[in-house]
Amino acid sequence: MGTMNFWPGFYALQGAWFLLLLIPLLVFYFLKLKRPHQRVPSLALWSQVINDRRVNSPFQKFKRSILLLLQILLLLFLVLALMQPYIQSGAERAEYLPILIDSSASMAATDPETKKSRLDLAKERVNELIENMLPDQRISLVAVGSTARRLTDFTDNQRVLKKSLASLKVDDVPSQLEDALRMTQALSRTAPIKSVLFYSDGNFPQEIDFELPFELNYQLLPPAGVNVGITSMNARKNQAGTWDVFLRIENSKQADSSASVELIQDGQSVAREEIVLGPGESQRLEFSVDAGGASKIKAILTPAGADSLVADNEAYLTIPQSRQLLVYVDPELASYRYALDENSEMILYPQPDQSSAPAEYDLVISGAAKDMDREALIKLGVGFVPEELEKYIKLETELTEVVDWNRSSSLLRHVQLSDVQITQQPVWTENSGVENLEELGYEVLIHGKLGPLLLQKRTPTDQEFYFLFDTDRSTLPYRVGFPIMVSNLVQLTLQEAGIAETQAAATPVLPVVEYQPEQSYQIKPPVGKTMTVKSDANGVLSGIAALHVGTYNISGEGAKDAELGVSLLNPLETSLVSVEKIQFSEVPVSAAAAQIDSDKPLWSEFALIAFFLLLLEWWYFQRKPTGVPT
After folding, report:
1. What is the maximum alpha-carbon separation in the chain?
2. How far apart are CA 228 and CA 233, in angstroms?
3. Is 528 left (phi over 0), alpha (psi -120 to 50) or beta?
4. Cα-flanking dihedrals φ and ψ of residue 103, to 5°?
5. Rounded to the nearest 10 degrees, what angle do helices 603-622 and 66-82 cross at?
6. 22-47 confidence digits (pLDDT tens)
7. In 477-544, where do the E strands start and end?
8. Per the database record, which ranges form the VWFA domain (predicted)?
9. 3-state class of 412 per DSSP?
10. C-beta atoms surrounding 536 within 10 Å
11. Tens of pLDDT, residues 61-101
12. Cα angle, residue 95 at apex, residues 587 and 199 outer, rounded to 5°
């Protein structure tokens, strides 16, 4: 930023050499002498000829000629236009200027008075900078959404820049400023970048893990109006067999808001509720729906008053097809089979009268290490130490008890273990400890006196739990905590299988789906052109961009015109909160106090004045047939 300097600067000062054209202009004008041929009846008129000679002297002619003055002014203004003058802003002029423009969901928020979005306002300001470009300046436009997207290379072509700027649209995604800065850093390897201009409404995380190699000019746009939106949506199957759908509605801090929430299941309205929220408040809503099979749920929020953002007023959720869990339990573990035998949500294997078994299970519980190689989502090993840990832990036949346990673990939630007696004691080997287990990806959930009692290991495909002692050789199966623990295990398996709990998918990526292997599928988004993607060798479609809220139609082999709904569900975007200071790794960057000034080119104004002088000269010369003034 700087103070405006009203003394003009000149980009092409060498154009002043054209002022030398004044010399031939004056010379030709002074030498010009036009005497009309006249018949005279008397020699007495020769006295008039003598007077005419005196008046035709160079200085007298120059003194009385308006036409000459117009021609001189015309030449002066043409030369000034060639010198390309501009009004200096007082700020340092960057020859290569990247302009980052926030295009995240909150940039669609509108002002209640002007009805302009934050993106519209940013476009107006950037368009002004483009119009005021000087000939030696180059601008590159970068859109900041869920990823950075370069709209133009460095160019001085105003037509290209304006066209790219006009095509920029808001995506229903949160912004990732860090990606845009890293892209700009990559651009700095090809061009000398000293400063970067960033236009945003400030709706992004305050702390950015990035070391600035250039100056960042943060232009914070004015805030939008009040907004209310849906920020989370999930569903959970209850014990009655129905589904509980949970919604969270949040209000921005500007004013009170009232709205109605409607739940639509497979095209039919099934519930409706009116809510009133104070500034910055949120409310959790719960609805119950019946769903025997797969079902599509849509939540619609209808604000009663002004609402700045539309994208967060809809949310989509799919209730999966219900099925029974496939569970393998080692016949030797009678306590676990007894605890699971009466559960109608699962099929227990191995079965006495059935020789065949599924290739994959949802849950495996076994006291044999070889059974942990079975394909399953959740595995529980009982009474042995995993082979890769045998050098760190050994089992001794000693009485021990639980010292502490992880109460936040999904397996041990609401489980009381303080009075459990154990006849097998896992013991650390010499110079071994928790850090050795953590290096192999294990986490200790239950601690004994001399070693760990229960371990957890997460892999990309499953979760594994290991009781390092035989639970049947302890008092655990006779405590109230044992059936609670088994119930937690079943609930965890249901969640991993995706048949007891589901969440609404959010932008910017479609949820993973599985169809036929290596087949092409057409995906029609709610906004934009149809995309063609190909499934992998396992038939999986993943990593597909979903930049807009709405339903995505999938057609192809096995898809049967499937629909996937994608929602915004971002509390930060809904809140419309503006960050006035960005904290980087080393220094903070505050929003600029005023709009950025730019140099104002004047050559077009001077050229226009010269054009009007040319018209005036033409009119003056043509007003009499002889072209000679009276």
Report:
1. 152
2. 15
3. left
4. -125, 25
5. 160
6. 677 666 666 665 555 666 665 555 56
7. 501-503, 513-514, 520-524, 531-534, 540-541
8. 96-259
9. coil
10. 11
11. 444 567 667 777 777 777 776 666 656 554 455 689 999 99
12. 50
